[in-house]
């Protein structure tokens, strides 16, 4: 929801405090949720929103820059001319880059780049097609995001993925851009914007990698870009018309070009193409590449002379006096590799020989005067964003920027798990356990009796035999071998702590060692201690009520259930559960998600269901043949119980027969947690199993390796949003596994 707020606020309030706050919240969430959830839910939605920023002709109009725009020059080798969509997409790009700053370069190469490839991938149909407005906007968004990515890639990474960028991004974009059969919904304007953005992108890559690498990796994209001018020149000399037969059959005429290839051509698109690939566009594309490539331009661009001639004609059209009278006549490209036609009679030497300028004249670089571009032409003002191009002082850092090293950068096991997770479909409702160790939490000097994640899943609590409760952060650090220290230690208990949980409504922690302690997780301050009424009748089980309730339910060894409201002194309710029977000690309590019922499990295997509103016992039944080890309540009046008789049973609250019954072959399931409609189980043999609440009995189990988990498994908790497991052991160490 917050991610969608970002785009919703941008058009009406481009500089509003609400937009600023929304962006800040998205950034905060990205850090709080961790790499997998941030990438799966935040980054994915931001990437989709990026396309929406460029939908429609209005978003594809060049913005009117303030002040006088500098021409192509030594300090402005190529243009970054913004459109309205660039302004709208600014906050979205900012949030995307923030996620990359948090979790490192893999976010750029493993998530953003594949999404860009998806955006620009051609359709499945091989015949002529017309783009829809969403695909058109996706092309613009893809080129914009790619340019941002290139800036932040290290030299090594850029060279490693350069073939992918060439074949999966540049060539597909150029396929649409130079297509003679595919039209753009917004016509020439959208194609022009895409053309200018693509020029900027390729020029940026050329600046990063140098001439030799351009020749090796980018020859095909650059040659394809230039080739469209030759194709349009040839089509102008042919009387290309689509006859009624071809139109009715949907077939397009095939035209033989000078390179020996026959290509289909849609005559209705010729007008759109000629509006895009004008003399000015020839000048715009020729200037940067003639400067960047030098003599290599002759090797990789067969028609560079033709484009140079067209660029010369553009200069003549805006400033006829700039051309030598001898070269005023339009001429066909000559054998000379240099750009002779564009102004050998320049009246003064600019003194910039050997630097990046606008055009090559003989063996020097010629810089046009500012007055040459008084008429900016249909492409809009030629300027960089924020003044100047990449070469200017304000844009120097735009060529390459270092991603700041973050303590949460992905590496090792975290990177491997993250790569897997971002490829999993969001519709996949199953829990997959891969036994990947992500973090270790040493600190307890005794066995870990219980673990409980906070509702936000950025911290968790653990209770131990060492009579302490510890609060641990769940942010990713290191490569999976890191050990994390506790954020807070609560040491007010006098006995072994067997229960810990969060009272969600007031955000308090509840822990029990025979007496219930309520304390503040931010300060560690004790807020209340509830002692048993009789020291000979200790508390044996505790559960907290779900929000918005603020009550704690406690069972004592005399089979009495008591409710305490943490806001008020004294008892709230007291109910007897035995009913004249002697079912033994209450081993486990579970409250329904609605808070309307509570179920108690006894050491005899007996279970009692109580209505919390009336205090009436709704049902009591012999559920198991051994001790009840744990009970969980699920939405839909479903109960799950495990017992020392090796069974795990799924019940409907008021039905006599169980829905499903699982039997563990070797060891009882002494700890389990729920993930949607699945149960994740753990045994003292260090086996993790996953079984369904809905399907017939079947269970897949995994034996924990000694490399990932040492000691005996004593407690288990699942992080449902992050899909991680917290495993406590008898040696006092807690492991985070995925």
Automatic annotation (TrEMBL):
Keywords: Cytoplasm, Cytoplasmic vesicle, Endosome, Lysosome, Membrane, Mitochondrion, Repeat, Transit peptide, WD repeat. It is found in: Cytoplasm, Cytosol; Cytoplasmic vesicle, Autophagosome membrane; Early endosome membrane; Late endosome membrane. Residues 323-353, 371-397 are annotated as: Disordered. Its main location: cytoplasm. One of its GO terms (biological process) is aggrephagy. This is WD repeat-containing protein 81. Belongs to the WD repeat WDR81 family. One of its GO terms (cellular component) is late endosome membrane. The lineage of its organism: Eukaryota, Metazoa, Chordata, Craniata, Vertebrata. Residues 383-392 have a biased composition (Gly residues). Signal peptide: none annotated. Coiled coil: none annotated. One of its GO terms (molecular function) is phosphatidylinositol 3-kinase regulator activity. Pfam families: WD40. WD repeats lie at residues 441-472.
């Amino acid at each position: 929801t917050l991610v969608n707020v970002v785009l919703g606020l941008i058009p009406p309030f481009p500089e509003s405090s609400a937009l600023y706050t929304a962006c800040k919240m998205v950034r905060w969430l990205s850090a709080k949720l961790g790499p997998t959830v941030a990438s799966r839910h935040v980054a994915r939605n931001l990437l989709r929103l990026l396309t929406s920023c460029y939908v429609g002709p209005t978003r594809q109009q060049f913005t009117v820059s303030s002040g006088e725009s500098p021409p192509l020059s030594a300090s402005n080798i190529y243009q970054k001319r913004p459109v309205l969509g660039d302004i709208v997409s600014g906050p979205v790009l900012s949030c995307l880059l923030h996620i990359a700053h948090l979790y490192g370069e893999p976010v750029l190469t493993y998530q953003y780049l594949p999404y860009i490839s998806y955006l620009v991938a051609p359709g499945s149909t091989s015949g002529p097609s017309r783009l829809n407005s969403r695909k058109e906007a996706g092309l613009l968004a893809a080129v914009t995001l790619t340019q941002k990515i290139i800036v932040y890639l290290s030299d090594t990474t850029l060279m490693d993925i350069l073939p992918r960028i060439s074949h999966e991004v540049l060539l597909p974009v150029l396929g649409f851009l130079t297509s003679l059969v595919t039209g753009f919904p917004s016509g020439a304007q959208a194609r022009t914007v895409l053309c200018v953005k693509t020029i900027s992108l390729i020029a940026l890559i050329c600046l990063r990698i140098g001439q030799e690498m351009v020749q090796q990796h980018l020859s095909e994209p650059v040659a394809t870009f230039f080739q469209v001018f030759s194709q349009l020149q040839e089509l102008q000399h042919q009387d290309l018309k689509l006859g009624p037969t071809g139109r009715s059959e949907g077939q397009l005429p095939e035209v033989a070009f000078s390179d020996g290839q026959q290509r289909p051509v849609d005559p209705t698109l010729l007008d759109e193409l000629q509006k895009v690939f004008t003399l000015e566009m020839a000048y715009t594309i020729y200037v940067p590449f003639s400067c960047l490539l030098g003599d290599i331009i002759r090797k990789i661009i067969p028609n560079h002379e033709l484009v140079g001639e067209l660029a010369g004609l553009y200069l003549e059209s805006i400033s006829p006096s700039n051309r030598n009278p001898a070269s005023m006549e339009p001429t066909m490209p000559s054998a000379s590799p240099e750009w002779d036609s564009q102004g050998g009679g320049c009246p003064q030497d600019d003194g910039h020989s050997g630097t990046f300028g606008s055009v090559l004249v003989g063996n020097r670089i010629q810089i046009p005067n500012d007055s040459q571009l008084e008429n900016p032409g249909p492409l809009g003002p030629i300027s960089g964003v924020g003044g100047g191009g990449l070469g200017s002082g304000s844009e120097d850092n735009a060529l390459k920027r270092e991603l700041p090293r973050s303590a949460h950068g992905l590496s090792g096991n975290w990177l491997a798990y993250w790569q897997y997770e971002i490829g999993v479909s969001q519709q996949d409702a199953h829990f997959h356990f891969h036994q990947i160790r992500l973090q270790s939490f040493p600190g307890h000097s005794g066995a870990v009796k219980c673990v409980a994640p906070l509702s936000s899943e950025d911290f968790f609590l653990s209770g131990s035999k060492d009579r302490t409760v510890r609060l641990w952060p769940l942010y990713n650090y290191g490569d999976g071998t890191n050990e994390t220290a506790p954020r807070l230690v609560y040491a007010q208990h006098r006995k072994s702590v067997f229960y810990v949980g969060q009272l969600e409504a007031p955000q308090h922690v509840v822990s029990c060692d025979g007496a219930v302690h309520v304390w503040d997780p931010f300060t560690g301050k004790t807020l209340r201690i509830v002692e048993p009424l009789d020291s000979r009748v200790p508390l044996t089980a505790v559960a907290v009520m779900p929000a918005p309730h603020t009550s704690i339910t406690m069972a004592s060894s005399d089979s009495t259930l008591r409710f305490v409201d943490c806001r008020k002194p004294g008892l709230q309710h007291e109910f007897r559960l035995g009913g004249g029977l002697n079912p033994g000690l209450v081993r486990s309590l579970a409250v329904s998600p609605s808070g309307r019922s509570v179920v108690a499990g006894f050491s005899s295997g007996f279970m009692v269901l109580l209505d919390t509103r009336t205090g009436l016992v709704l049902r009591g039944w012999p559920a198991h043949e051994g001790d009840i080890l744990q009970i969980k309540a699920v939405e839909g009046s479903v109960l799950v119980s495990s017992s020392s008789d090796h069974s795990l049973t799924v019940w409907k609250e008021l039905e006599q027969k169980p829905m499903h019954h699982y039997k563990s072959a070797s060891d009882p399931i002494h700890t389990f947690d729920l993930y949607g409609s699945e149960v994740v189980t753990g045994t003292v043999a260090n086996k993790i199993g996953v079984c369904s609440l809905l399907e017939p009995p079947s269970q897949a189990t995994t034996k924990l390796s000694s490399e990932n988990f040492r000691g005996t498994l004593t407690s288990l908790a699942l992080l449902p949003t992050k899909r991680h497991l917290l495993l406590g052991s008898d040696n006092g160490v807690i492991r985070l596994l995925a």
